[in-house]
Amino acid sequence: MSQTLDIISDWRRFPTRHRIARAEIAGGLVAVTWSDGRISPFHFDWLRDNCPCRQCVHGQTREQVFEIIDAPEGLAPSEAWPEPDGGLGLAWRDGHQSRFEPGWLRANAYDAESRAERRTPPPQVLWGAGDPLPTFDFAALAEDGPDLLAWLTALRDAGLTLVKNVPVEREAVMTLARRVAFIRQTNFGVLFDVESKPNPDSAAYTGVNLPPHTDLPTRELQPGLQFLHCLANQAIGGDSIFVDGFAIAAAMRQQHPDDFHVLTTTPMAFWNKDTVTDYRWNAPLLALDDTGRVCEARFANFLRGPIDAEPEAMAAIYRALRRFLAFSRDPALRLVRRLEPGDAWVFDNRRVLHARTEFDPASGRRHLQGCYVDRDELISRIRVLERELGN
Ligand code: OGA
Ligand code: ZN
Ligand code: ZN
What is the mean pLDDT of residues 56-83? Predict the structure, then answer.
């Protein structure tokens, strides 16, 4: 790669695993033949749009400064050739020149095979009552190293982790959360105290049984990660229960596809109203991503508003809701544990439903502290850590 054209519009590294053997301009496309025989066609606009040269990309931010409209419509390259490093060289008819690193071009190629490779998402590890719980030690998470990455990856893929030996001190949960990223503040504070309170503004702050739920389904974006750190748990009752919302979704999709369809398409109302805030949001219980995978569960029965749907749809909606609730109570799907002081649950609040059995506040002290971090903070942290650890 030449000295002046040495930048790429990304901070990731793109090792050369395949070199370009041939580059041909034909039929309004540049057809690139790779060393393994794969052929990737590229449109002229696409190539011009992604030119990584210093005129097109800012040298420090690596953000694009060029806009495609600044190139004449119908602009075509006059020549295309394999570079000595295995990349692609282009000379454009308006005099501009572009060079593409082989690794970058391969990683972003959009022929069917390349797209299929790229679309392989991280696995969703579904779990139920008998499955092992990914458990980590607080001290091991202090360094930006493989242990931290293992924890973050478990959070991404399984959605539920237990961290042991967090100092039994107020605000220690913030230290843990900051190992991932910024804390997301809400109307319940930067940090919230879960204990029975004299004038509760949430069912959580009483001793009542909290059925399986996600926190803040009332918000357009539900908090991604939830941290719950135990400072005291001497009261009778108050055990923790977790149900994998994606496991419920998978079971419904397979066994009750009609109910699954209803839950992915019917907006449900979630309301959290008190004297100073009034959050309301309508969204289906299960959300699908653009590939059809379940990417979110949203549910708290105690925050649900009345269902607003066409009369003809109501019976099917209630059938589906009953089915969802039945799965949420299925012992085979419920992981039950009692938190000890120093334990912290960290889980994907947009996936995992959590619950607490009733406790008697008069029987002993129970105090958890919690906070939230958004899911894309987690994913960004994983990417940068992988970059730094050379994965
Ligand atoms: C909550 C909650 C769990 C518990 O505060 O939303 O679910 O164990 N608490 O008290
Ligand atoms: Zn350029
Ligand atoms: Zn909760």
Answer: 94
